[in-house]
UniProtKB/TrEMBL annotation:
Belongs to the RLP family. GO terms for cellular component: membrane. InterPro entries: Leu-rich_rpt (IPR001611), Leu-rich_rpt_typical-subtyp (IPR003591), LRR_dom_sf (IPR032675), LRR_R13L4/SHOC2-like (IPR055414), Plant_receptor-like_S/T_kinase (IPR051809). Coiled coil: none annotated. This is Disease resistance R13L4/SHOC-2-like LRR domain-containing protein. It is a single-pass type I membrane protein. Keywords: Glycoprotein, Leucine-rich repeat, Membrane, Repeat, Signal, Transmembrane, Transmembrane helix. It comes from Gossypium raimondii. It is found in: Membrane.
Length: 438
């Protein structure tokens, strides 16, 4: 027996007599407008194997199981994106058939109960986005089938238990933004045989990027060490991580220049280095090798650094899939290259707070998917090209504080933007600024 009512805008409470459906195997009430508490009668659903109550407005504590032996077949539990509070019930450890538990984005507090170590069939555990505190229980190391563990955005404290080194099947580990203050990445992290996605943002990691990450048993595919206290340069060996898809080293204290070896990345899709002290040229980013024609990069953020050059090396072959490109708050100067018109997929371009000069290149008008264009606080001169009227998808524009002159081309989308998008160009006139003098 299955009951699927998901995404139907249902309001009110879950009926108290829901527990009478003792033959019910799958219950899906997700993505509705349900409120109130989960009725304790769900403990009577002796045949239930799938329970999805996520994406509602449910509150109160998790009421099940109240005793050992209840809900013995429950394998998939989704309660995320509600307003559930209180502690994670220790009795959850009775549900030994659980394979996936999603409790993220609630208001759960207190420590993670050690009884979760009894869930021997568990493969995925989502506890992120709550108010959990205390330390990670040693019993987590007993979850031999665990593939994914995400505990981010809580108040969990360190140290990490060495017992976690027994998680031989773990592929994804996310401990970001807790109160861990690790100082360094535990060596066992780099020795986990299946681990390929490592998220340790905001974990108080200090010093240089550890070279133990260059020879992990399983190739790293995603690495997030952002918002730490990393120093030194980006090591040359990182180019050997040829299966890396996402690299986030933003909000650290990295310095020096980007090594030429980053051009060896073969699969990189996301590169975020913003808010560091990286200097010299960004040219090697634009030379990143790829196994896809037209490139694999889709997201590049190099903003808030001290780059002085490199944009001229934007090459035609490797950035054709870039959707987001942010080079703002750097020290770049000179003229924008006409080769930027090859960035056909670009939706957001931010070059603000640099020292770019000369005229606005008409090539930008060929970026038909562009929704955001921020060029403020540069030294652009001349007129706004009439071709900018071709940017029909433009929703966010800022050309303020440059040296632009002449009449703003009349028509949409330029006429849709307020004065603040054009101010600080003393030679500009026309709507939405003052009329031009004849």
């Amino acid at each position: 027996m299955h009951l699927d009512l998901h995404a139907n805008s249902i309001t009110g409470h879950i009926p108290q007599n829901i527990g009478d459906l003792q033959l019910l195997k799958e219950l899906d009430l997700s993505d509705n407008l349900l409120n109130g508490e989960i009725p304790a009668s769900v403990n009577n659903l002796t045949s239930i194997s799938v329970m999805y109550l996520d994406a509602n407005h449910l509150e109160g504590e998790i009421p099940f199981p109240s005793n050992y032996g209840q809900m013995p077949l429950l394998g998939f539990l989704r309660l995320q994106n509600n307003q559930l509070g209180g502690k994670i019930p220790p009795n959850l450890g009775y549900l030994v058939s659980l394979q996936r538990v999603s409790l993220e984005n609630n208001k759960l507090e207190g420590a993670i109960p050690s009884s979760l170590g009894n869930l021997e069939a568990l493969t995925e555990l989502y506890l992120n986005g709550n108010k959990l505190s205390g330390v990670i229980p040693k019993s987590i190391g007993q979850l031999s089938h665990l593939i994914l563990l995400t505990l981010s955005h809580n108040s969990i404290q360190g140290p990490l238990p060495n017992e976690m080194s027994a998680l031989q099947n773990l592929q994804t580990l996310d401990l970001s933004f807790n109160s861990l203050t690790l100082n360094s990445i535990p060596r066992w992290v780099a020795k986990l045989p299946s681990l390929s996605r490592i998220y340790l943002a905001g974990c108080g990691i200090k010093g240089q990027i550890p070279d133990m990450l260059k020879s992990t048993p399983s190739p790293i595919q995603e690495l997030d060490l952002s918002a730490n206290d990393l120093t030194g340069g980006i090591p040359a060996w990182m180019g050997s991580l040829t299966q890396l898809y996402s690299l986030n080293l933003s909000r650290n204290h990295l310095s020096s220049s980007i090594p030429a070896s980053v051009a060896d990345f073969q699969e990189l899709g996301v590169l975020d280095l913003h808010s560091n002290n990286i200097t010299a040229s960004m040219e090697h980013v634009f030379k990143i090798g790829t196994s896809f024609p037209g490139g694999s990069l889709t997201y590049v953020d190099l903003s808030d650094n001290s780059f002085t050059s490199g944009i001229q090396q934007i090459s035609v072959g490797t950035l054709e899939r870039v959707v987001y490109l942010n080079l703002s708050h750097n020290l770049q100067k000179g003229k924008l290259p006409t080769s930027m018109e090859k960035l056909k997929a670009l939706q957001s371009l931010d070059l603000s707070y640099n020292k770019f000069g000369f005229g606005l290149v008409e090539a930008l008008a060929n970026l038909s998917h562009l929704e955001t264009l921020k060029l403020q606080r540069n030294q652009f001169t001349g007129r706004i090209p009439a071709e900018f009227l071709n940017l029909k998808n433009l929703k966010d524009l800022d050309l303020s504080d440059n040296l632009l002159v002449g009449e703003i081309p009349a028509g949409r989308p330029l006429s849709d933007f307020p004065q603040s998008c054009f101010t600080g160009n003393t030679g500009l006139c026309g709507k939405p600024l003052s009329p031009c003098k004849s």
